[in-house]
Amino acid sequence: MKKIALVELGGSHDECLYAQLLFLENQGFETIDLWVNERLADAVAFFDKAHQTSFLPSSPTVKDLYNFRQTLIQRAYDLVIFNTCQGNNVKNLLLLPFPSHITFAGILHNTGKINGSWGQSLISRKITRYFFLNDFLLRDKNDPKLSTFYPIFFPEYPQVALPKREKEIWISVPGQVELKRRDYSSMVEALGQLPKNSPIKVIFLGNSTHQFGDGEALRSMAIAAGIEHRLVIFNEKLPNDVFYTYIQKSNYIMPLIHPGHSSFPLYQHQITGAFNLAFGFKKPLLMESAFNTYADFRENALFYSQHELVPFLAQLSPAPSDQMYMDPKWTFCFQQRKYLQHLQVNLAAEMDN
Prior knowledge:
By secondary structure, this protein is of the alpha/beta class.
């Protein structure tokens, strides 16, 4: 393989792109090009690992997809990797004929689609390799077409000045604010029962006013509980430097996914980006005890029962342990090797030998 295109046709999952560019860098490829939806222009502006970055229409038409297909052929790519290997745009593109020398691979974010979606079955006719984003998603699946990798390596964005008081404990809840996605009410109720001098502050690290945003509902809950001073809520998507500074200054990452909540079944087939942010920045996770059967979390999380969240939060210390993230899987070399081997791409060092 000499020429590679990394493609994101949709407007999300940009957090998975940079690690893949790092894995592919310096492996002897003639070309590594990045093709992304124009809505991600700001998100990838700091990326410096692709030979060329190009932008695709935000809502591509059939004609746009046909033109993109022509470009992929004309530029003679050997491998096309879909950062999001699901959805109508990918399906419609791959229904078009391609030369046999082009290999297709990609990340399947919702693994439930692998056997339960007619559209995904059409995509799978062209895909030779799928990636899942956590080992627990691969359970009970014995298929050489499937593997995992963790995109937990991020650009070194410049840090910005953020006010954090001494002894304050920051818990970040990454992701856009949507009541259907996380159990905000349990957190608000628990925070309302903490002592007034509690050092806990919760950062809801995502846009609360997008099309499906529930920022006003969350603010109303906080005001009713008298804890608005304990919360940080944003009215817009944060610039990357601000977002990643909050992550780095956080003491904990909390997915806020609880059994009984409408979102819980989703995470049997997919991950939340909060997992990879915690893994990437070696932050302890705060996880409901329903997740304590997974090895990744047993090593790197503190567990609580959602019905005992108040005493759990009350006893949190700023730094719980220095024995987290000891497994080799959290290293760059481990994840790069898994990624390239599944793509059947040799590491440059091995090629030199």
